[in-house]
Amino acid sequence: MTMFGSQWLGNAGSTYEIDQSIRFNDDDTPYLQRTPGSGSVGNDHTWTVSFWIKRGSDIGDVNQQNGIVAAGDGADMGGDVSRYDGIGFYNDTLQIFTFGGSSPYLDLRSTVLFRDPSSWYHFVVRYDDTQSTATDRVRVYINGVQVTAFSPANYPDQNSGTNFNTAQLQRVGANTVSTSRNIDGYLAEIVMIDGTSLGPGSFAETNSDTGQWVPIDVSGLTYGTNGFRLKGQDSSALGDDTSGEGNDFASSGLAANDQMSDSPTNNHCTWNLLQTGSNISSMSNGNLVATGTSGAAAKWMSLGTMAVSSGKWYYEVTSGGARIGAGFTTSASLTQANLNTGPLDVNVETFVITDGGEIYYGTTDSGNTSPAFGSGVTMGFALDADAGKGWVTVNGSDWADSSSGTSGDPTDGSNPTWTQTIGTPVQPLCGDTSGGSHTTIATANFGASAFAYTPPTGYKAWNTDNLPAPATEDPSAYFQTTLYEGDGSTQSIDQDGNSTFSPNLVWIKNRDATDAHALFDTVRGATEVLSSNSTGAEATNADTLTAFESDGFALGDDVIVNTNAESYAAWQWNEGTTPGFDIVSYSGTGANRTVAHNLGVKPGMFIIKQRGASGSNWGVYHSAVGATKSLFLQSRGAATDSAEYFNDTEPTASVFTLGVNAQGNADGGTYIAYVFAPVEGFSKFGSYTGNGSTNGPMVNLGFQPAFLIFKTTGDNKWIMKDSKRDPFNPSSLSLVPSENVAELTSDQLLDINSNGFKLRTTGSATNSDGVTYVYMAFAESPFKTANAQ
């Protein structure tokens, strides 16, 4: 049995720990199975299945059912020949099915897609075909939230029965139609309750401190005759049942090293299936092995799922072929072209050690060498992000530095191989350095199993337990989206997040109609309206937002905020240095000047509007565009280059600078500025380059976003997304800050993931090939406590 030390355990705010998972590598045809005896028949009409899963390389499989839990060996059952029952993924949907001969009896496929490989999902399927209402016979929950949209939506007939809990074959990790129809990834706490239909609260709960959906101890449940609880706690017998019912499963295609400490309460880094080059051949072994395609131009690279900007970290890569490269990258704006052409062709801040022993920084050969990274060699990479230093070792030998190649020491910080800007997020990297007729294989160990060599003192594995506590442990205390229905009268809108606060900025939009956007803040006061889609002056309207309340806001009956039977979205921010948000009111001088803010760090974005005069722009500074240009929130126009906006001067930790213009600094004008600074784990203001593909860029934010705004630096509309309107992927609903249009559906598709977002569209507003886009993002959860979405 593999033992894990205390450094591998724990998760902020969780009172129950899952110590391990079982890795299912579909190349090995892995599964667990048992066939109950004829005298051990349970309840085939009422049961519950619960499991935690972290997806692997089967994301994107087409028309292939990847079985998770299944029952039935094809024998005759009640007159239905060759009947099988199963729960699994199909085209990245969750499918619950009964298959009998050539006719499907039960077939539910979620319209939402599950293709986030960076963290853990919790699924509960409760089955009770004795219910008179068809939709009550099968209920599905993801991270505690019920999924109700299915296509097809063929519910079982009443009292139809299943193969589960019968004397038929029961299988985990594959369906029973074929052992080749496996999942790929990790499973933990796989539970069957025989005879009872239970909701998700029997298996997990919302952590009161963080809002994260976390597991609870299920040892006290009544499991029933054929119930089981598979924890994978014994590496020599991964199918041992710990429910007390003795329903052990035999294993096939699984080995002791498939017990991993990657778990729902301590999520580990892997190679990111969503942030990799097109020349990669495959991912395997729980996305820890990346294999490249052989060919003259077959360069590629892949990044890790975790980005860190503080702490001391260690990981290993073992080469399985020639021309391997591995190391770190600090670039947050890698393009798909970068990923396709390999680490040595990337003109970004990247450190790579190659199979020839060369040490590269971006595209530059440093002229320094270390022992060659050949086939079978294990390289150890140590990163001290607090000091901005990195080291590499070969098969546990001396740490190479950038001059002598032999004398570095990560423990005392001497002679690093690599230096970087302190505070810049760093991701692991691997890839093919040259292309050619060879196969490149990079096998990573981020600490989910024992390292081949001892890490330097103080350096930790790449997992969420070792991430520092975020400054904003519960983002809902500082930002929330609230959805509500208008009543045409007066009403109070209460926040429904894990925490509540009295908002300082409220932005409201009618989703159903072409009403204007309406922005209110506590500096200007309630009833004072500005519209992001208009250059108009501030208007006083006593029937709009009438008060800022302790947990939301109060409304009058004006149509822009409260039309009867129409749907609204309200985005709310809490002001302060912790969330990095300041509201600044000032008067224009008509001369170049600075304006003080209270954030204490350089803003990533600020938005300015003149209050008292019509015809003035909403001026937008964005750090990815720079102070020489301005965007305009009410306009789809391109960034405008002029010193009159920000005097070509970058903001500082205490002031932002203005030129002379009506937008931000007309003599005697009154202005409001919304000033935002990046806060690790809570907010980010960056850019990416589109690729014009439905396999679009993956942007690692270091958190799961709750709210996103996008704009190309060229001519196109602004786009606004949030996870309340689209709680599941893909995110298809868009509002347009620069226009008063009603909500757009099936627009600018993207996936919101546990560590960022992935574009899934060719839409020009977010993903034209070669076009630069800027974004602002606020968190649902920091990655440390994020569930997969």
How would you describe this protein?
The chain has five domains: 18-260, Jelly Rolls, CATH 2.60.120; 271-466, Sandwich (Jelly Rolls); 475-573, mini-chromosome maintenance (MCM) complex, domain 2 (Sandwich); 581-676, no CATH class; 683-785, no CATH class. It is 2% helix and 38% strand. It has three helices and 57 strands. A hairpin with a 4-residue loop joins strand 29 and strand 30. The protein starts with 20 loop residues before the first strand and ends in a 7-residue tail after the last strand.
Summarize this entry quickly.
The protein has 789 residues and is mainly β. The protein has three helices and 57 strands.
Describe this protein with a few key phrases.
single chain; about 800 residues; mainly beta; Jelly Rolls; mini-chromosome maintenance (MCM) complex, domain 2; 5 domains; eight-stranded antiparallel β-sheet; 3 helices; 57 strands; disordered N terminus
Major sheet, described briefly? 8 strands, antiparallel
C-alpha-based Rg, rounded: 27 Å
Q: What is the CA–CA distance across the termini?
A: 32 Å
Domain count: 5
**Average of per-residue pLDDT values:** 91
Q: How big a fraction of the residues is strand?
A: 35-45%
Kindly report the oligomeric state of this protein: single chain
Any low-confidence stretches, pLDDT <50, length ≥5? 1-13, 76-81
**What portion of residues is helical?**
under 10%
| Overall spatial form | globular
Class per helix and strand makeup: mainly beta
Total number of helical segments? 3
